[in-house]
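New to this. Please check this protein:
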Amino acid sequence: MKRIMTFISAIFISTTLQAMGMEDDPLLYKVMIEKLELREAEGADPLVLDGEVWIGYDLDKFWIKSELERPGGETEELELQLLYSRAISAFWDIQIGWRRDLVPDPERDWLAVGLKGLAPYLFEVDATLFAGESGQIGLRLDAEYEYLFTQRLVLSPEFEINLHTKDDEEVGIGSGLSDLSLGLRLRYEVLKEFAPYVGISWSKRFGDSADFAREEGEDVSDVQWLVGLRAWF
């Protein structure tokens, strides 16, 4: 309770100082829906949600990240991350915190340490190292680039790669290169904060991850057309 009251007091003081024109580093926040999309696939068309929220100051922020996939109205994947972020340069933040895989069963917990920022040639990069149970180590690298055809029409290629040190058959994870996904989305920014898009996504599992998928009767690789919305406030 004491920590909650301290946090509320900090918000009140920050707001008061800002209103008086005395606050150089105000408390800010942002809610970002990176992807809210419906994909066309064989069988049930999956709904995909990828979003994040942050609150804090110029150098220090608290982040909540979440990823969800629901084919046929049933949640197949659900991940939550709670992170503390510290700016280490004008373009890079270091992040540390906790990740929980809520779905599929059984749940898995990870210590997360990552680097998020803008690489040369304006690539947005999010690289995270995860330390899990029984010595399991995972690495996720996510990179995205934005090409402006006009001030409103934006083409966005991206890729994500996941690697692990050990097999985890219960949740379908194989050691080594586990999976790779590539996406291409063309969005129209009606407003900077509101942009519908269309695109295509390709994904493939490798090694033991692919073997586990075959045993469950799942596809090893897949191509999906998609339509979605990107928004923030």
The chain is about 10% helix and 60% strand. Residues 1-8 have pLDDT under 50 and may be disordered. The longest helix spans residues 2-19. The radius of gyration is 19 Å.
